Each structure stands twice: as structure tokens, then as C-alpha cells.
């Protein structure tokens, strides 16, 4: 099954106006034909015969269907999965569907924004759950309109007609294509009540595999990213940022820079006072604006610039020491007691065995493939931006604050995004582009270099965990204590102090609900390093520590780690966790058993290689990893990585498999090599050489994905496979080397201890 993907063309301003003028006879409501920054317009949107059926669906007279994908696609597959939800309910012929990314949908509601498409955020694991209801309704509405138009033409009641692959079919076999009905359907008023949705037995696309709609464009180099976008008279801007967030310019001489051919202007930027992190300029900076990228970079290199340090500096080594000291201080009161079940102090006095361990994890950067960039045109009549963002509504808020424009005067186009991982939930780079566009009164294309991308990030904080568990004579875990110290990613972002812990630890994470006497404490650490949302937060750091510690409990008992886990989980049952969340231990056991069976776990003690295993749950979804590793001298080989996920109903198995495999490899790469270090508050990593993503040789020879079929409402999966890959690997390394890695990155620690 294929999907048409018309290659976008770049219309002139004259052609842009002609396209708009040519739509006089068509109803175009939800999908804009172009943005005022000359963004590429798909050929499928340049005709005069597109008829709108709701906010997401357009059908032309030939029966071709255009469906808008509302959430930015950062590699998570939303450009395929979300339109397929609509297309299934519409009974569209998928081979005649063209998918286009929707820009920000906003209307003016008495000067305030009304979001046309509702949810427009990627990377939080909620695109599919948020879409499951309203996008089916969108498809059902379009189908209902077509049925009404067909009923009038055929003289048959609508409830006696059916839809199939782009046609309405009558009981006597007569059929009318959607294209023939589109004009009349677009003129029919929508119903007052919601339209009935399909029953699962009638799904034709949901649950069936489909390739990424952008796959051909990506592999042939034709995919259009924000980094590829230009306006006709664009000025290119590159920056150099102050290494200290609260630093300042001590001296600046721009003479040599302005002498470079093509350089137009040098502009200084600084953060706005009182504006939360991620919504304004991250640090003081100097921008060089030029006619082209080469001139801008050459001009930046010739700046004679001295920065003045801020009032506070620190090092990553100092931060780790503070974290270690506080979790080892028995008298230190936690910043937040996240969970306190039972009576851990009394119960612990009656047990026969105690196990303790400390785990240390580093600062991390996002390191997206596409560095931060933004194309912005600002004038008195409006603002038009092309932005690689995960949250266009947040980007709109930044633009509106800086320009004062009304909701509908701000256009934001979001092409496919070259990776997000949470970094593009912040919009400091958008603020920079808008400020510069206002300063030069021309369209500005802001481009960060890789060194700026790594040294000017909003990092995931380093963290230190201390665990203590006691067991009785029957090998049951009686008490469980976790003390975690980190710097909250939510600090200076307008979050209440009593909620800062929520970015660092989950109150319902394993083994919550499984151990009667359980305590989870979080210790807040101050840091001058900017922090922000990161992929898998807070599960990534916590699962590594928790699942490694469960493995240590198994080793202390001298038993099979799978047996230890199954005993800890107990019998299949539903356990209320609080806040409306429930742990289905049957589903957790199932994914754990699936990976164990696939890797041949019954031989775990008698293999030359090492086996490791781990499991987790995230917002109603369940995941487990099993990893096989070998060691040849100092060389670690990951032979196999197997992941099983249970997300309820699967929309696109191919897309989900890709997400799970990709997240597995991302998590392994992060665990193996990556660490941000800093001295005097200056990040030491400037490129891939000192922040090395894993090579193919370091990654598994085989990565297998097991999808558990289900009929429950779907859950998110963008980072579901992240948490358990690293602990499964570390546990496998222990089996093959007898080295217990409690500190990441793994390779550095393993080589130190071998």
C-alpha cells in the first residue's frame, strides 16, 4: 500500500496570490494553502477543486484526499498514525491520500487565541491518546457529510448506504466516488450531535502496517525541514552565546566582522527579565547577520569579544558531590516526600536481610540531528514563521509576547522536525529569531551551529539515587527506600515549589503498589545550569536505578533475576496507585515473560554470554527489555536487544516497531557513551567527537520488537522503550563480566573497573 506524496514546490509571491485567488469556488477551512514566508506548497494543494469536510479533510473532484497531520512529526510517526485514524473512520482509499503537516491552527476569540486543532504537541507520549477520540470524530463527520450527499443523489436513505475505499455504495450495488460528492458534501451543515463511530470489527487501516508517509522523501533527500526554508530576501543570522547564563559582554569590537563581505549587522541580545526559562533568550549573545551563511560564520569568527562571568559558577564534579552528600546524610530532610506507604521504619526492624546501593547518572544534552533554527518575518501586519517545534502553541505565545500581534496575525508553519527529545518544547531560539527580525526589519533565518547546540542546551540534570531494601526469610521485599537528589527541570519555569519533583521522579513508578512499606524522597539541588524537559523524563533515570537494584537484590539472594522480579510483582491483579492510575500486573508480567522466552532466559545461568532483563510501566503502557551481551577483552558486544511493549490498541504496527527499536537504540547509545561535564559553568563538550553517539558497531547486532495485541484505548509510545534498555544492558554486563555498573556512562565505568 502506498501513499502519494506530491513533491513540494516553492511558489513565487505571484503564484502564491494566484493559488489563493483560485480557491474562490472551493471551501478551504482547516488547511492553509501557504504561509507568508513562501513555505513550500504541496502540488496537491495548488488546484481549484479542493472541498473541505471538517478541519482536517479535503477532497478534490477526482477523489484524491488530503488529510492534515496536526501534531509536529519529530520522527515519532505522527504524520502517518494520526491521518490513518481519520482515514479509517472516513473509509478513504489510503493509496489516494496525501498527508500534509498542519501549521498552527489559531483563531481570534476576543483577542485571545482559540486553538483550531486542539492538541498540537509532540514528544510527550500523548499524541495518540489525545487523538483517539477527536480524530475519529473528524473522520466520521467527513464520512457522514458524504453519505448525506450520496443519499440525496441516489434517493436512498443514508443509513442504508455504506462507504468503502473512497466510494459510497448503495444496496443495489451502485457506487459514487467521494470526488463526485465532495462539492455537495461541503455545503451540507454538520449535524448537531456527534456522529456514530465505527466499531473495531470494521477497522480497515487501524491495526494494519503502513510505512511512513515521508519515507521516500526522506531517503531521497527531498524532505523539507525548517532548515531548508528561505524567504526571498532572507538575512542569515548566527550567534555566539555567553558561556554564563548570568554573564555579560565585557568588551566587543565588530570592526573586522563588519568588514567581511556580505555581513550586514551585529546585534546583541539578552534575556528578558521575569520571563520563564525556555520562553526568552537563554543567555546574553551576539548575533552576526549576513547575506548568506558563509559570510555570517566568517563574521562571527572575526568578532573580538570578551565575556564577563556571572556571579555564580559551579562544576559537574561539585554538583555530584553535593548530591552524594545529601543522600548519605540520614538527618537531611527531603525537599519532597513523594510517596510514603506503610511504616518503613517499624517494618525494617523485623527483617533478615538488607541490600543497599548508590547509582550515579550524568548531565545529558538533547543533541538533535537538526540544530535549533527558525525562519521569521515580522512586520506591522503580521508575523510568519517556519519553526521546528514540538509545541507550536507555545511558540505562538513567545511571538505574541514579543510582537503584540493579534492571534490570527501570527502564522506558524511546522515542517517535519529533525528530532525533538524535549528540546523543542522550549523556544528560546524562536525568541532570538523574532528579536533579530524586528531589529533588521527583514526576514531572518536563525541557524545555530553544533557547538552552540551542545553548549547552550537545557540539560537533563545529573542525579544520584540511594536505595535500601529489606527482605524477610521468605525472600519477600518488606521495605523499599529510594532517596534521589537532582536539580529540577521545572525550576524557574513558573511551577509551584511543591511540584518541582514531578520532572525528577514518578510517585507511581515501580515498585510502588508492590511493596507495602515504601518511601520515596527527593532532594532538590540548586544549580546555575539551565535544565529542561528531556526524552523519557523522569522514567529514564529512575528505571535504570530501580531495575539495576532489583537485579542486585536477586544476586544477594543467589537466584534467577526473573524469579526475583516475578515474586516482587506477584499474581496478576489490578492495583490502584492513586491519581486515577492503576497497575495491571498481568500485563507487566506478560511483557516480561515475552522477552524472557524470546531470548532463551531459561539458560541464563549456563551461557557464555550475559543476559539482562528489566521492566517498567508508563501511563498505562507496559514495556520490558532483555539484552544479551558478550565481552572480548575490553570490547563489549551487544548481541541482541529484545523489547516487548503493550500499548493497548496499536494504530500502525510498522510505526510502533520503528518507535520501539529507535528508542531502544537511543537509550543504549545514551547509556554507553553520553555525558555532559562542565567546569566554571562552561560545558566541555562541543561536538560529536566529545559527545559521541554510539556507532553501529557498539549497538546490538539484532534488535527485536514484540507488540502485544490489545483492544484497550491506545496509549503513547514515543519514549516507552527508553527506560528499560539501559538497566537490561547493565544487568547483562554484570552477568558476563562480574562488574556491577552503578555509574553512567557505562563504557567509561566498565573500562575503569575491568
Category from helices, strands and their pairing: alpha+beta
CATH homologous superfamily caption of the largest domain: Aldehyde oxidase/xanthine dehydrogenase, molybdopterin binding domain
The span between the termini is 51 Å
CATH topology value of the largest domain: Aldehyde Oxidoreductase, domain 4
Q: Mind telling me the CATH class of the largest domain?
A: Alpha Beta
CATH architecture type of the largest domain: 2-Layer Sandwich
Within the largest sheet, what's the order of strands?
12-13-10-20-17-18-19
The poorly predicted ranges are: 1-41
Number of domains: 3
- Determine the fraction of residues in helical runs and give it as a percent range: 25-40%
Q: Quick one: how many beta strands?
A: 31
Give the radius of gyration. 28 Å
What is the average per-residue confidence, as pLDDT, rounded to a whole number? Answer: 92
Q: What's the number of helices?
A: 18
How would you sum up the global shape? globular
Biggest sheet overview: 7 strands, mixed
Beta content comes to: 15-25%
Account of the 3D structure:
- Helix 13 crosses helix 14, helix 13 packs parallel to helix 17 (722-737) and helix 16 (653-673) packs across helix 17.
- The protein starts with 12 loop residues before the first helix and ends with a helix.
- With 754 residues, it is of the alpha+beta class.
- The chain has three domains: 13-219, Aldehyde oxidase/xanthine dehydrogenase, molybdopterin binding domain (Aldehyde Oxidoreductase, domain 4, 2-Layer Sandwich); 228-310 and 372-447, Aldehyde oxidase/xanthine dehydrogenase, molybdopterin binding domain (Aldehyde Oxidoreductase, domain 4); 333-364 and 459-753, Aldehyde oxidase/xanthine dehydrogenase, molybdopterin binding domain (Aldehyde Oxidoreductase, domain 4, 2-Layer Sandwich), CATH 3.30.365.
- The strands form nine sheets. It has a seven-stranded mixed sheet, sandwiched between helices. Strands 15-23-22-21-16 form a five-stranded mixed sheet, sandwiched between helices. A four-stranded mixed sheet has the order 1-2-3-4, covered by helices on one side.
- The protein is globular and about 80 Å long.
- Mean pLDDT is 92; it is low at 1-41.
- The protein contains 18 helices and 31 strands.
